[in-house]
Design goal:
Blueprint lengths: L5 E6 L4 H16 L3 E5 H7 L6 E2 L1 H7 L2 E6 L1 H11 L6 E5 L14 H9 L4 E12 L7 E2 L2 E6 L6 E7 L2 E8 L1 E5 L7 H4 L11 E7 L9 E4 L4 E5 L7 E5 L3 E5 L4 E15 L5 H8 L10
Parallel strand pairs: 1-2, 1-4, 2-3, 4-5
Antiparallel strand pairs: 6-7, 6-17, 8-11, 8-15, 9-10, 9-14, 11-12, 12-13, 14-17, 15-16
């Protein structure tokens, strides 16, 4: 187990609750003699000028661990920057579901104490990257890459290729290309399967397909996926990465998706279980212990 000597803090300080938890984390780490650096937007929201302040990129090059306070959205945005640096992330949940941020506010000191003492596990998650025709940038997503109609809910036609093999032509409101991490997010609400984070696979989930034969498709994680907008489509489409970065794509243009080489590393306190998280967050039925 690695020791953590310099820890970065980042938060979406949108509420007093998030600010309170961030302060709790900061004070606990300081009491343990840990060197702390705070992301610049988070530091500005906290106030005061006695904190070491840095950008996410600078933190990635200098920190041993990053603690993200907020919801899964905070981890998503942080992961896209931090993955190339290999810095592990521990999430403090101040959001709604918290599939990725799994430390509750009332357990901060206990769980951080366990992690600092070396009692933790790590879990790797791969990201997806996409090349959008006509754009030089190659953005990435931890959850999903989504292609959909640009202006209003309306059917679009796309051609799907996997490793340059034609799969089918899809008429639908859009197509979700999800990693295992994203299988419990937008893809789940669209009828996709729940995938364990350790799986090396990608799921493609049509959104409201015109044909009932277009079902979610799971392909190997190493496959290359190409999506081409139908040239006869009379409207533009948009591509979004984790509902964050967005690009416009014209009829006849394509999107190329593959697994990103660098991975996100999440730190979990002892006792973490993916199935336990699903049971808690998705309200799965409990086993009847009276039988």
């Amino acid at each position: 187990m690695a020791s953590f000597n310099r820890i970065g803090l980042v938060a979406r300080v949108a509420s007093d609750q998030v600010r309170e938890s961030l302060l709790t984390v900061e004070q606990f780490l300081l009491s343990k003699g840990i060197e702390i650096v705070v992301e610049q937007v988070s530091a500005a929201a906290l106030g005061g000028d006695n904190r070491a302040i840095s950008s996410l990129e600078e933190m990635g090059a200098s920190c041993d661990l990053l603690i993200a306070v907020g919801g899964d959205g905070n981890i998503l945005s942080t992961a896209r920057v931090m993955a190339p640096f290999g810095v592990p992330i521990l999430g403090i949940n101040r959001g709604k579901l918290g599939f990725l941020a799994d430390v509750s506010p009332d357990e901060i000191e206990v769980r951080l104490g366990e992690v600092l003492s070396g009692d933790y596990t790590t879990e790797e998650h791969f990201l997806l990257e996409g090349e959008v025709e006509g754009h030089d940038e190659v953005p990435c997503a931890l959850n999903e890459i989504l292609i959909h109609s640009a202006n209003m809910p309306k059917m679009i036609e796309v051609e799907l290729y996997v490793n340059d093999q034609f799969v089918y032509t899809l008429n639908s409101d859009g197509l979700i290309v999800s990693s295992p991490t994203g299988s419990t997010a937008y893809a789940l609400s669209a009828g996709g399967p729940i995938m364990h984070p350790s799986l090396d696979a990608i799921v493609l989930v049509p959104m409201f397909p015109h044909s009932l034969n277009n079902r979610p498709l799971v392909v190997p994680g190493g496959d290359e996926i190409r999506i081409v907008i139908g040239s006869d489509t009379q409207m533009k489409a948009k591509i979004s990465f984790d509902s964050h970065l967005e690009f416009q794509i014209e009829p006849g243009e394509s999107l190329l998706i593959r697994k990103k080489p660098e991975r996100l590393v999440l730190v979990h306190p002892p006792g973490h279980s993916f199935y336990g998280v699903c049971k808690s967050k998705l309200d799965w039925a409990s086993r009847n212990t009276n039988r």
